[in-house]
Design brief:
α2 crosses α3. The protein starts with a helix and ends with a strand. β2, α3 and β3 form a beta-alpha-beta unit. By secondary structure, the protein is an alpha/beta fold. The protein has a single domain, classed as Rossmann fold (3-Layer(aba) Sandwich), CATH 3.40.50. The strands form two sheets. A six-stranded mixed sheet has the order 4-3-2-5-6-7, with helices on both faces. Helices cover about 30% and strands about 30% of the residues. It has four helices and nine strands.
């Protein structure tokens, strides 16, 4: 990346609109964790974080789920650090056997949901007894991959803007931003 490109990345953050502060996001994560614990405490689930976006929310949630579970990750993408999707590409399939067990898929955002839909289908095809979705952010719009597509656990419902922070990125950057931000004008 050239210095000019890096300066652009820095400017995006400086000019971005803060939609939800770190405290608001942490409160939402705590609420999600309580709901998941209530529903899954006796289920013996496998919890999969979806990389890279689910890295932050997956880590935050795992430390708040006070019941036995196995944790792993999957890495499937359609974006490849761009702003529009492509065909699904598997980078890492799960290593934990989840046949006949419930699966909780944890990701940063449910936007259109093409990647999440493919991952849910994969888990069902591989024999999961049940698959539920937990996302930090559900973007409010009518462009979902499947009309019935929804996450059972949602931290924050958010307006239809280009957002980053808490695992969500802007061209591969700012997953580490301490809050949820929207790119100015997008």
């Amino acid at each position: 990346m050239s210095k000019t490109d890096l300066e652009h990345i820095k400017q995006v953050y400086i000019q971005a609109d803060l939609l939800h502060s770190e405290a608001e996001v942490e409160h939402a994560i705590n609420k999600m964790a309580a709901e998941i614990t209530e529903d899954w405490a006796d289920a013996n689930p496998v919890v999969f974080a979806i990389m890279n976006g689910g890295l932050v929310i997956g880590g935050k949630l795992l430390t708040k789920l006070n019941f036995p579970l196995e944790a792993g990750y999957m890495h499937a993408t359609r974006y490849r650090n761009s702003t529009s999707g492509h065909e699904l590409e598997w980078k890492v399939r799960p290593f934990i056997d989840f046949k006949d067990r419930p699966v909780l898929v944890v990701d940063d955002i449910l936007d259109e949901g093409h990647t999440l839909a493919a991952i849910v289908d994969f888990c069902k095809e591989q024999g999961a007894s049940e698959v539920r979705i937990a996302v930090l952010v559900d973007k409010m719009h009518d462009r979902k991959a499947r009309p019935e597509m929804k996450a059972e656990y949602v931290g924050i419902n958010i307006e239809d803007r280009y957002i980053f922070g808490y695992g969500m990125d802007y061209h591969g950057y700012w997953r580490n931003a301490p809050g949820i931000f929207a790119v100015k004008g997008m």
